[in-house]
Each structure stands twice: as C-alpha cells, then as structure tokens.
Amino acid sequence: MHRPPAPAPLPSTDPADPGPAPRRPSALRGLRVRLTPLLLAGLLAAGCASVVNPVSGRSELTVMSEADEVALGAKEHRQILAQQGVVDDPALAAYVDRVGQRLAAQSHRAQLRWTFTVLDSPEVNAFALPGGYVYVTRGILAVLRDEAELAGVLGHEIGHVTARHGAQRATRQQTAGLGVLAATVFGAAFGLGDVAQQLSSAAAAGVVASYGREQELQADQLGAEYLARNDYAPQRMIDVIAALKRQEQYAAAQARAAGREPASGGNWLASHPSNAQRLDQIRRIADGYPTPDKPVEGRSAYLAAIDGLDFGDSPAQGLVRGRVFVHGGLGIALTAPAGWQLRNTPSTLLAAHPDGQVGLLLRPVPPQAGRDPRALARKLYEPVELHTEARTLHGLDATLVQGRRKLPNGGSQPFELLVVDGPQDKLYLLQQAGAAEAVRREQAALREAAASFRPMSEADRQLARPWKLRAAVLPPGGWARLAADTPLPPGEAEALLRLLNGADPVDGDTRPAPRPGDRVKTVRAD
User: Fold this and answer.
1) Does an H or E element contain 89, and which?
2) Could you tell me where the DSSP H helices lie in 230-298?
3) Cα separation of 75 and 122, whole Å?
4) Which of 7, 195, 309, 421 is 20 to 30 A from 441 (CA-CA)?
5) 354 secondary structure, DSSP code
6) Could you tell me which residues belong to the region Disordered (predicted)?
7) From CA 463, how far away is CA 205, in angstroms rounded?
8) What is the Cα–Cα distance from 76 to 131, expressed in whole angstroms?
9) At a CB cut-off of 8 Å and minimum separation 6, what does 138 contact?
10) 483 φ, ψ to 5°?
11) CB pairs under 8 A, 24+ apart, for 281-287?
C-alpha cells in the first residue's frame, strides 16, 4: 500500500462493477497490458499493412507499423512506471541496462531505442512491450544465479520484441478489440479466487493471458541465439527455464503446506508450453549454437549488483509478515484471522479467506473524497438504507457504516464498512467484500480483522524492518545453518534459501549446486 502523493478518486467495490483495480501483477498470472481504446481504434482504422518480420525475413500482415510499436510502447511504459514503481538503485539499473543493451545490439532489431527497467515488485516476473521496452522485477533478480541467467531472461524478452509478437497478437485479435502486449517468463498462482480477481489487473482489463506456445518457444530460441552472440553459453537458457521449474515446485509445496491446491497449467493459456516441454526444446535448440571457449558467467558481478536489494514486500508499500501487515511510513498495522492470507498491492490491502470467496479490503481515502462516512458510503454504493455508529478503535476515532445497497436485478444486499481516522490525519476504509452468503458466513472473522486495525506498536515496528538480499558464504552447516541467521519464517527459510540459490537441481540444469564455502544469497533484516 503506497502513500500516494495524488490519490485517484475513490473507486467502487461493487462485485458487479470492480472499477479500476490495483495494478500489481500479483496473482502471479503475468502482467497483461491492453491497447487503450483510442489507440486501438486508430490502429484498426488504419487497416492491415504488410511488413517484413525482422527475425523470419517473411512478409506478414499487421495493424502495427514499427512507428506504432514505438509509440504504443512509450505510452504504456509511462503507465507501468506510474503503476509499478522502479527500484531506486542507480548502480543496479545501470548494470541491468548494460547487460540488456549488449544483447539488444546483437539482436535482429538493434536500431530500436531499447529501454531496460527494474520494477519494484517482489513477483518473479519479466515482460516486454513493443518498441523495445523490457522489464524485470526485483523478484526475478532474487532467484537468478548470475549474469548469464539474467542475460537469458533479457534475451527471451528481447526476442518477443524482435519477432514482433505483440504486433502479431494485436493483429490476430483486432476483431475482439484487444491486444496482449506483455507476458511473463516466470509465474506461480497464489490462488485467492474471486476476491483476488476483483483486485487483479487481469480482471479489470479483461484481457487474454500471455503469448502462445510457438511464440514462447521462439523467444526461448532467440534468447539462446543472443546469448551465443554475446559470449554467454547458449545452454544457460536451459538454466533460465530450470529456474522456472524450481519456482513452480516451490510454489506448489507452499500451497500444499497452506492447505491450498497447487497451481495448475490453467493459469496460463493451454497453448503455453509447460516448463518440461520448454526444457526439452531449449536443450536441443541451445546445442545447435556454438559455445564460446570461455563463456561469461558473471556470478561475482551479479551478486555485487543485487547486494542490498529489497526482498519480499517493499517498505514503501508496507510489509506482510505472516498474519500481520505493517506500514512504517503510514504508521499502521492490521492482523488477519488465523488461516487467512494477506495480499498487498500499491493501493489496497486484502485479507482473504483461504477459499478466496470473501475478504476485507483496507485502503486510504483520497483527500478529494472528503471525510464524511455517510457521503463515502454513498460514493461506494447506492444505499437504500444507511446507519452509522461512532466507535473507538485502539485509540482512533472510527465510524461503523451499515446498510443495504441496490442490486442490478432490483433487489438489495447488506453492506458494512468501517471508516477510521488513522495516524497522520489520514482516513481509511475497511470494507467487507465477497458474495453475500460468504460474507454472512465469515462475518465474525471479517469484524475481527477490521477491529485489529491499529497504530503501530513497538512489536509492529520490529516487524517493519525491511528484508534485504545479501551475499554470504555458505557455512559448513549448510542451508539449515544459514537459514537460522535470517528473519525468514522458520518453516520456510531453508526451502526459500535453496530456491534463491538454485540448490535443488532439476532436469537439464547445467550448474552445480552451491557447496559450503561458496558465495551465496541470503536474507537479512536491515
């Protein structure tokens, strides 16, 4: 949850009208970007033209010229920077840009003005926009092992741009009025169901997920080719896909431990290749390229570049620590009911029941929306009944608002929200969300979560210490010993460190697992 300088108008939370949703690719389903209506209309009005694909050398019909790609990429780039935020680390930004520019200069579209950006997101994600805009998250940097793997991720995304995959999708989908312009390399489902869907950018945009199977495999192939052209071993693309496989295995184990169903391939389109398929195909592809005599690995340079990088949630957006959410900048905290899950976005915190059907939303009220609880309720709903009751919550003035709102079918449904005067003279909404029956069933837990909203205590301030990636030496006691010196949850720490360092080889992995005495990544409380 940001402390935004200029908040947007207060949106609706009607399940039938979710309004503008928070822009975090956080269900880990991949960041999707749609063509804005005016821009799409202009492209369609222009009709299809024939261009030569820079990779295949063949002519293809398109609704997007290169100039259109550049214009669209530049426009969406500004929006992504505003929505996601950029890691404030000039040295890291310069390092990632240097690796990316080297690869792009040896690509099929070296003439583009390429832009490489590190987004301030803990999600394991990378994507590209037409026109030469490539993004990696700090989450993906945490699971990569060295510069060669970073180059593999960047090369894959450069491949999507050089092969004009975004333009191809926009052309094929022109009759539907949609364009999918970005896709993830890595991802795993969190599994929050309907409530999370209300909050996800995918639900708000209503767009189609990631690239198809052939486009992903072509991007893998181009990634291997661009590695080979830049003195990296093309086989390191195998390690990039292996990292995806490890991430999936870790996410599945975490889901089972939490009593959730592991993510299935349904989170991507059925045409998307499975990681097993990609490993098999990229192994054959990579072996077709010559391997440099002294391939660049760049492990020391990579570990130095990411040393001190935020790990997990960003302190600027608040931190989830188990069942507790703390935001040092805003001075607030909230505790979720036992078994519930906390999901933090740049503008909203969601405490969700494990079945994903009901949750509590916490968000700041924009100043322009005013401070009258009854007026706020009218902005959010069309109430046919409205009642308010003054309360005190951990020393804070609060107002309980209850009533009934109109439904499209002519009926009505009860609603309840808590309006709280928080620290720093900021106003907050705590809203119940979900199907009426689920809200009734979980009413006690929803009220428990709302009642936990509080100014930060000393214990909360200790939890609010940010976590950082640090380089360390793997001790003789191995991962268990290293895990004991981290702030990570004891039941997860060792498995997470093994994931971050690629310590569990998977089929096709070309790199040996770290051994005691090797430099590795760990997590420290700052």
Assistant:
1) none
2) 236-257, 275-286
3) 24
4) 421
5) T
6) 1-26, 502-526
7) 35
8) 10
9) 87, 118, 119, 120, 121, 122, 309, 310, 311
10) -65, -30
11) 281/217, 281/220, 282/217, 282/220, 282/221, 282/224, 282/237, 282/238, 282/241, 283/235, 283/238, 283/508, 285/220, 285/221, 285/224, 285/234, 285/237, 286/224, 286/233, 286/234, 286/235, 286/237, 286/238, 287/235
For 221, the enclosing helix (H) or strand (E) is: helix 213-229
- Residue 328 CA to residue 466 CA, distance in Å, equals 10
List, in order of start, the domains of the chain with CATH numbers.
37-303 (no CATH), 315-462 (3.40.1000.10), 468-525 (no CATH)
Length of the chain: 526
Burial environment of residue 501 by CB neighbours within 10 A (0 to 12, 13 to 18, 19 or more): buried
Helix or strand run (H / E) with residue 388? strand 383-393
Residue type, 485: D
Return the residue matching tokens 């040996």.
Answer: 512
Q: Could you give the CA distance from residue 351 to residue 195 in angstroms, rounded to a whole number? A: 10
Interacting residues of 238 by C-beta distance below 8 A, sequence separation 6+: 279, 282, 283, 286, 508, 509, 510
Shortest CA distance to 428 belongs to which of 405, 446, 454, 448?
A: 454
Distances (CA, A) of 450 to 46, 393, 512: 52, 9, 48
User: Tens-of-pLDDT digits for all 526 residues of the chain?
Assistant: 654 333 333 333 333 333 333 333 322 223 334 344 444 445 444 557 888 888 988 888 777 888 989 999 999 999 999 888 899 999 999 999 999 999 999 999 999 999 999 999 988 889 999 999 999 999 999 999 999 999 999 999 999 999 998 888 777 765 344 433 444 444 332 223 334 444 333 322 322 345 778 888 899 999 999 999 999 999 999 999 888 888 888 888 887 876 766 655 433 333 346 666 777 888 888 989 988 999 999 999 999 999 999 999 888 889 999 899 999 999 999 999 999 999 988 789 999 998 888 999 999 999 999 999 999 999 988 899 999 999 999 999 999 999 999 888 888 889 999 999 999 999 999 999 998 899 999 999 999 999 999 999 999 999 999 999 999 999 999 999 999 999 998 889 999 999 999 999 887 788 899 999 999 999 999 8
